[in-house]
Amino acid sequence: MSSVLPLVALAAALATLPLGAQQPQIITGLKQPESVAIGPGGKVYVSETGEYEKANDGYISILEGDKLRRFASGLDDPHGIKWYRDRLFVADNMGMVWRIDAQGNPERFVDATDFPRKITNFNDLEIDQAGNLYVSDSGDWEGRGGVIYRITPNKKISVVLTDEDDWRLVSPNGLLMDGAGKLLVVDYTTGILFRVDLKGGSKTMEKVAAGFGAADGLVRDARGRLILTNYAAHKVYVLTAPDAKPQELELSGVESAADLGISPDGKSLLIPDMGGGKLAILPMPK
Ligand SMILES: [Ca+2]
Ligand SMILES: [Ca+2]
Description:
The chain is mainly beta and about 290 residues long. The protein has one domain (about 25-285): Neuraminidase, CATH 2.120.10.30. It contains one helix and 25 strands. The strands form six sheets. Strands 1-22-21-20-19 form a five-stranded mixed sheet, with no helix packed on it. It has a four-stranded antiparallel sheet with strand order 2-25-24-23, with no helix packed on it. The longest helix is centred in the N-terminal third of the chain and has 9 residues, at about 5-15. The chain is globular and about 45 Å long. The termini are far apart. One calcium ion binds near residues 49, 51, 54, 57 and 58.
């Protein structure tokens, strides 16, 4: 039997797509991928959690063509990843931050016991120009324990904000620098985008926009637009300005849209489908 779809059937299949749905290129065979980062030489890296809440089976892959090659192994539940100079930093959901060299050798940069509070669910990781890490702890998923930490290059850990400082910090997830002294954060439980002033020491945050559902990933494209994912509704939102009405795209064939990245050429969104075990590559929305 021919595997080539007759033109009529293809047209019929396309006609059934809901309005506004996007048909991404899909790469399969990933194990609960959570986050994408661009590394040296424009290579695409993906964190794969393995079995959730199982230690030592998580890893980082490199995308080569439409295949994934193992880069670093022996992690627990790797989530947010980001390169700083020649090191890849990884927020591990089990409560540590890994630092991985260019050859793929991981070391524990900081451990759960180094933190001043009980760790619940480490999620995203962002890095400022000075090399300070920001890590979101999404809390216990029952409305408590949300924290954002700062970790300096020499491993000094401090609390930026907790749910006790500002009760709206319920389940902080995606983080993104917004200029030198400001940090954007999306909340997975409330779907609200906030801006945290890192310099003021005010221990509060300002609401920027709302309505992003189970908000997870947060990136900025070359045009300065903010792009967010809604994990549960497998949607992508594009904002021309933080307070603009978002353009909403439904992702066809994706179960859960986690922490997205942008391809080095700026032409695609790279969206890890954590529940579906896939990587979706979507043309950059117009
Ligand atoms: Ca695991
Ligand atoms: Ca995330």
